Amino acid sequence: MSQSRADQLDIRHVSKTFITQKGSVHALDDVSLRVREGEFITLIGPSGCGKSTLLKIVAGLDDSYEGDVLLEGRRVAGPGIDKGFVFQEPRLFPWLTVERNIAADLSLRDPGVRKRVDELIELVRLQGFAKAYPRELSGGMAQRVAIARALLRSPKVLLLDEPFGALDAFTRAHMQEVLLDVWQTNRTTMLFVTHDIDEAVFLANRIVIMRPRPGSIRGVIVNDLPYPRKKASSAFQEMRFRVLSEFEKPEEPVAADWAGL
Amino acid sequence: MAKPIESGVRREPNRATIVALGSILPVLLLGGWQLAGDMGWISTLLFPTPLTIAETFVRLVSGGELWMHLRISFVRAALGFALGTGLGLFFGLLVGLFRRAERSLDPSIQMIRMIPHLAVAPLFVLWFGIGEESKVLLIAKGAFFPLYINTFLGIRGADNKLFEVARVLGFSRAKQVMRLVIPSALPNILLGVRLSLGVAWLGLVVAELIASTSGIGYMMSDARQFNKTPVVFVGIILFALVGVLVDVFVRLLERRLLHWREGYKG
């Protein structure tokens, strides 16, 4: 990855407060992150650290925040096909077959779309299931359809919100390989939210570690292990310890926490 | 041929068994009825025996009378149904899709819904005469509401998570309606169609009994005046038969359009 390449995604001082009837929750506090084209970033942290909130803001699904999110120099204004999104659940249209789910609002009669859909089905290893309905698919297969659907429109950045969280360990390992395959083929910039340290280390170039209350970035670890990575290797375990110890580093005391009591 | 393994597998009974199971009750009932009539236990004037009814049916069919009435009734029901469900679907979509339409239209529609058929039937006759209009409109009024309500419910029941997907994929407003709202409302819409058919049928009887000179309902009320009870029974049976046939048709349609769903089959 050349350092000279311009930042593709620029998250600048993003803060977000949820206002509910019971009061306000400070979900994100001054989060800044620059992502270069083709990078694979994982956002990791305990629940409540605002990682999913940040992803929705980048996707344009949430526009009530402070700060700026720039994609290729332009401020993100609403969701669009330049930002692919994979949700925690596959969210397929149950009345459409696999191939029509991937095409979604585009017509398969268009030869260009047809060709891309067939390529993507092969890329996510779903050959033979093009005409199947979502209810006939396993969780992992359905999530691969969702990934293919997000990739069809050639997004500049693919945002993934704990996409493999609901899958069993074996399926998850397989999905991680599929996703790396996709990334190495397409070189799409990936922003991947997870709470699984192994997953973060296995996938990312850079691991962004977040902390809760208020959600903010605690540290960024550059992960330069060569692909394909072996989870059982000592280099992998070392990287894993680095991430873990980042979580266990003592926080600098915050005086304000006590002052109010 | 090898014997199929039976352990743990519930054997599906064959077709003949299913039909036999379903016919036990009707056959017993008809047999008892025929017997009671023949033995003079019940008045054959009020309860003509099944055989008499069958004879009357054959006579009416061969005389061509039945077809004439049936055709007229069918056309009325079809016109009223098409008008009612067409408007029901249109307003159901409108009110379901737009909050403003819901606020301005739904209260009035709900008010009209609560007015019983029989209460407005005389008024319809006064307004639209005893011609076809009053009958078709009465049927349409009945058929309108089930489809209207179910279309509305279907649209509002669409999964919000799928709307988020549609936003992320950049669906246009039109695509959102065509590719997301209508397909997800379709199970409800088809349920509405089935209910509307039932109500249209009911409206037909009301319309034809009140003011008419043709149709199955007229044939029945005419026969009643002359104590031709078998003809009344033939009319009732026809209503039931056509009703079931139409329902079967809609269910076939349902199976074709909703085959992506996997439901509990008992």
Describe this structure in words.
The complex is a heterodimer of chains A (261) and B (266). Chain A has 261 residues and is an alpha/beta fold. Chain A has a domain at 7-82 and 155-250: Rossmann fold (3-Layer(aba) Sandwich). In chain A, 33% of the residues lie in helices and 26% in strands. Chain A has eight helices and ten strands. Chain A has a six-stranded mixed β-sheet with strand order 6-7-8-3-9-10, with helices on both faces. Chain A is globular. Chain B is mainly alpha-helical and 266 residues long. Helix content of chain B is 78%, strand content 0%. Chain B has helices at residues 15-38, 50-62, 65-97, 99-113, 117-128, 132-156, 160-168, 173-210, 216-225, 229-257. The radius of gyration of chain B is 24 Å and the shape is flat. The two termini of chain B are 31 Å apart. The model of chain B has no long low-confidence stretch (mean pLDDT 87). The A-B interface holds A 59, 61, 78-81, 83-85, 87, 89, 91, 93-96, 104-105, 133-135, 149-150, 153 and B 161-162, 164-172, 175, 179-180, 183-184, 186, 260-262.
